[in-house]
Amino acid sequence: MFKEFKAFIARGNVLDLAVAVIIGAAFGKIITSLTDDVIMPVIGKIFGGLDFSSYFVVLGKMPPALAGSSDYAALKKAGVPLLGYGTFVTAAVNFVIVAFIIFLIVRAVNRLMPAAPEVVAEPVEPSDVTLLREIRDELRRR
Hints:
The protein is an all-alpha fold. It is built from five helices and two strands; from the N terminus they run H-H-E-H-E-H-H. Helices cover 65% and strands 3% of the residues.
């Protein structure tokens, strides 16, 4: 069993996948920082200096100690049910950025890869037609 596991791990696909997951996690942190620290503040400034993380709707009873608070993290930590649509907008922007970057990477790789030669497939004759043709040719020879 150990030998099978070793052979499984040693295959290139498993190692490639492990490297991709590690790089993807690091890439995710970079994109999160780009969105939270660069893009969303600029968007917030354009739309009146508002922070998107503070966009939420309180869905339940607010504790008296936090009455009137607009601190999303503190309210969430206190267990207040919230609909945090500002956080969702930030996550959606993260997704669009990641999808666009992956699109650019795939597009660049496709341009660098040589185009596969077009293989023109000749039509394949059905086997019954081939058999009938062989029988005909055999009868002609006799």
